[in-house]
Amino acid sequence: MPLLGAHVSAAGGLRAAVERASVLGCEAMQLFTHNPLQWQGKSPSPAGIDAFRRAILGSGVKKVTAHASYLINLAADDYVRKHSIDAVIREIELCYQLGVDSVVLHPGSSKGGSRSEALSNLACALEEIIDRTIDKNVVILLETMAGQGDILGSSIGELESVFEAMSWNKRLGVCADLCHIFGAGTDIRSEDGYLRFVSSLERHFGLERVGCWHLSDNKGALGSNIDRHEHIGQGSIGIIPFGMLVSDERFADTPAILETPKEGVGDAGNLALLRKLAGAE
Ligand SMILES: [Zn+2]
Ligand SMILES: [Zn+2]
Predict the structure, then answer these.
(1) How far is the CA of 70 from the centre of ligand 1 (A)?
(2) 24: buried, middle or exposed (CB in 10 Å: 19+, 13-18, 0-12)?
(3) Among 74, 142, 220, 265, which is most buried by a count of CB atoms within 10 Å?
(4) If you measure from the C-alpha of residue 143 to the centroid of ligand 1, how many angstroms do you get, rounded to a whole number?
(5) Among the CATH numbers 1.10.10.10, 3.50.30.50, 1.20.140.150, 3.20.20.150, which is that of 3-277?
(6) Model confidence over 91-111: pLDDT tens digits?
């Protein structure tokens, strides 16, 4: 079974996020280290960083991942590029201090320009980021996207081209988002569909590069490019691939993070369902 967990709010401080994850019995958690709609948050104090690290050690959480700001677009070719590079570097430096070993990043947008140029901008920016944080072993996980408009990363081939351009740098990985993959047109609704998808991850990246899963059903249809999160089993995907993933021994140490709506059954209900599917409860 993967390390099951949820994206938890850091309202009230980073340590409060760990407390929320603990209450849910999470083995993994994801958080925003600051408001994701802002370029820069207030840096936590050394005491705040220490409190976070101690809270993690005292909890059942084995792996933590941070999700980078939504404003970042490393594929940009204007002033946004420099802001984005600096923002990812700050995020990596903070993750390193917090003992967080990966950061999930949206690949960015071509903003109406050439997709291939945007992808090469992305690879160059990532190279610069890795060079400038060479002594901080934090892995950057590029998230698979639902493919709306000019958003990059809706196909495995597109993400693979970035890995290729970066000579398969060890600090790059993939965050496989089941809701997005389905929105982008990969039919994972059956057991065969799930297995085919995992085989393609293996072929293109190797499974050791899959550093995180994002779990939510999708209100949108297959191939609609819609990214509207829904409780597990209550959207167009259905329960099968989630049941397959939580029983998949190949991902035993990989975080699988809920990004389902907080209302209704909430994280507790979705986690209980996933544990039941895994035969753990
Ligand atoms: Zn994301
Ligand atoms: Zn999404």
Answers:
(1) 8
(2) buried
(3) 74
(4) 6
(5) 3.20.20.150
(6) 999 999 999 999 999 999 999
